[in-house]
Amino acid sequence: MVFRSSAATCGALVALVVSVTVARGETSGVQSSAVVEAACEGAIVGAASTYNPFKPGKEEGGPKTASGERYDPEVWTAAIKTSLRRKFGGVQFGARPKFALVEAVGKKVIVKINDVGPLRPGRIIDLNERTMRHFDPRMKLGVIPDVTVRPLSGDGWTPGPVG
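Predicted structure:
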C-alpha cells in the first residue's frame, strides 16, 4: 500500500509519533523506527563530514552556533549547508533549532540542526564529533558519501540513535 501525505497530514502524523516515541526514547535511549516513518518528504542525499570549531582557550564553553547555542561535541548536533537553511526552517540566532533524521552506513540518528556553514561542494551536512562517531567509530573516514538527511517537523524530538 502506498501512503502519500500532504504537509498538514505529515505534521499531524509526526506529532502523534513524537508523543509516543519521545516517551520511549527517554527511557530506553534508543528511539523506535517509527520515527523513520514520520519523516516528512524532502530527503536530501550527499556527503557528510565532521567539524569541531572548538579551540581550547578561544571561547569558554565553545563557540556559538547559528542558533546561539554553544557548540558541544558530546551532544547529537549538526550544521547544515547554508544553501539548505530555508529547507530546515531558517536555523538562525535565537530561533529554536530544527531536527533531522540522518541515515548512512546502515545506521540512523536524529540530530539537532543548530548551525549552518559553507560546506565544501558535494557535502550537505557537517556532523559534530559524537554524531560522526556513531557512523564512523574510529573517525577514519573523514567524509561519508551517500548520506540521506530528512527534515523532521516539530520540535519535540529527542536527538540520538534510532533503533
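Summary: Residues 7-28 form the longest helix (22 residues).
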